[in-house]
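Progress note, sequence design subtask.
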C-alpha cells in the first residue's frame, strides 16, 4: 500500500500558479520572465512574476494569456488588474501572488527585479512545455 500523498500547502499552490503564469508569459513572447519570492519582505503577497513585452499589444496579449492559463490551471481570478489602458505596466493582483507585465523601457527604469533581488528565484521551466501550453 502506498503512503498517502500530502495535501499541497498554500505556498505549493502559489508556486504552481506562478509557474503557470510564467509559462503563459513565455508562450506569448514575454522576455526575461522571473518569479521572485517576496513573502518574507512583503507581508501582502508571496511572490512576483515579472516579464517584459516589447509593445502595448504584446503586453495586453500576455496579460490575457496569464489570466486564462491560471484559471485553467485551477488558480484564482485576479482580484484586480491595473494598467491595461496604456499597457506600459500591467499589474495583475491575485492576492497570494502578483504578475507584472511591463514594457521593456518601464522595467529598465523601475528595476523591480533589482529592488526585490533579495527574494529567492523560483524555477518555472523545470519541464518542457507541452505543445499548446
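Output:
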Amino acid at each position: 500500500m502506498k503512503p498517502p500523498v500530502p495535501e499541497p500547502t498554500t505556498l505549493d499552490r502559489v508556486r504552481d500558479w506562478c509557474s503557470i503564469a510564467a509559462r503563459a508569459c513565455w508562450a506569448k513572447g514575454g522576455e526575461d520572465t522571473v518569479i521572485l519570492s517576496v513573502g518574507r519582505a512583503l507581508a501582502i503577497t508571496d511572490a512576483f512574476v515579472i516579464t517584459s513585452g516589447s509593445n502595448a499589444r504584446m503586453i495586453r496579449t500576455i496579460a490575457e494569456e496569464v489570466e486564462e492559463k491560471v484559471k485553467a490551471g485551477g488558480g484564482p481570478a485576479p482580484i484586480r488588474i491595473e494598467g491595461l489602458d496604456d499597457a506600459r505596466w500591467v499589474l495583475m493582483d491575485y492576492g497570494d501572488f502578483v504578475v507584472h507585465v511591463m514594457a521593456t523601457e518601464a522595467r529598465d527604469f523601475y528595476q523591480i527585479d533589482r529592488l526585490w533581488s533579495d527574494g529567492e528565484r523560483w524555477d518555472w521551466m523545470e519541464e518542457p512545455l507541452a505543445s499548446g501550453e
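DSSP finds four helices and five strands in the chain. Work on this subtask will continue into the next period as scheduled.
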